[in-house]
Amino acid sequence: MNPPLDPGRMDGSKEKIILNVGGIRHETYCSTLQTFPGTKLCRLTEPSASTLYDYNPTTKEFFFDRSALLFGYVLSYYRTKHLHCPVDTCRSVLEEELAFWEISDAQLAPCCWLKLTNKDSQPEEFNVWDENEHADDQCLIVQVERRDFSWRARWQPKIWSMFEKPFSSLSAKCLAIISLLFIIGIVIIFCEETKAQYEYSAANLTIFGHSDVIHSIHEPYYHQAPYLLHLELFCVLWFTFEFSMRFFFCPDKKKFLRNPLNVADFLSLFPVYIELFAAKQIQKMPNLVLWLGFVRVVYLFKLLKIFKLIETPLILRVLSYTLKSIIREMCFLLMILAFETLFFGSLFFYGELLGIHSSYRADLHFTDINICFWWALITLTTVGYGDIIPLTIFGQVMAAFAAIFGMLTIIIPIPIFLVKFKGYYATAITKQKLKMSKKQ
User: Fold this and answer.
1) By the 8 A CB rule, do 18 and 5 touch?
2) What pTM was computed for the model?
3) Residue 29: which H helix or E strand, with range?
4) What's the CA gap between 296 and 269, in Å, rounded?
């Protein structure tokens, strides 16, 4: 039988100490606990330990109401200096236990670290993304209701939900269908209006390419079909009404204006008004027609509102979240791609100039280094339009290397994306099953 433990003399290498963790008694040497100074177990070997911790002088043991299973791995860490964990351990529980024993989770062995990382893919971030996705508006509406008891505060939640949440009521569904019809109509009108814009632009290019006499005789005239402008104006009036109602009844106007789709909705209101009020000036400024047509491209962003009418599939939501999580890696790879573009473009430029015979310099497909940068980018992305081709052996070798490095640059982020996506998708499926089980 071991001699009774004296907390005042725990310095000998053969001195033993008894720890009762979760009802399981562990007996080890004091020198083992002194392996990692500064930790809680190491302080148990100090003379004042019996007064600081739950020490039973009768049984000569320290008691801790913690996980006995995980403490076995903690004690093994002091013995072998290799920290492992059970297979079915929750990462949050493990981190809590290690924090109690004042051990950093960075000491975890690589095999167990990879195992926990694959099982648990940042659940806290995913919970915020999944559960609070639609909670902001409701919180803001509640705040407004608490501050204000006017008619606007009473009607704001209903009208806001009617315009922003198509499935909140029957009137919201009808409003969403009407809005969708207007969106489809404005896109069709946009496509039809491009015909007159192209004819006017082509006529200007043809005239300015000939003599002044022909220009004076065949001066182009921009003429858009009146019914198209009237239909476009009718659609834009509806969009103006819709945007005004959404802006007036939105809970947070700053957040509303920071939304890119709302900015696109605002910009789409102006082209038809400008064209109607400046009809006479358009004939004097040919580029104004094309610029107004260019701004009308924002009409196409309205098609994204169709996603409000259908429930976004889980896999698409996980895909969006995965892209956000690897944005840092993507930026780093874009920097590498930019360096490769400058490097191979410069080598191609000087390689072609130095390697080609002087009598064939007129056959070169570039006039400055910027065009070579364009060639390098197209080659690195393996597109290869064929508008610029190397004429020298050195240029052909550089083209081959550029294509190889471009493929490697594109392939590298694929495994990173797949690992992230797999983890997030597994977590999302688990959360969805838990929600369904709670509803049942």
Assistant:
1) yes
2) 0.55
3) strand 24-29
4) 9
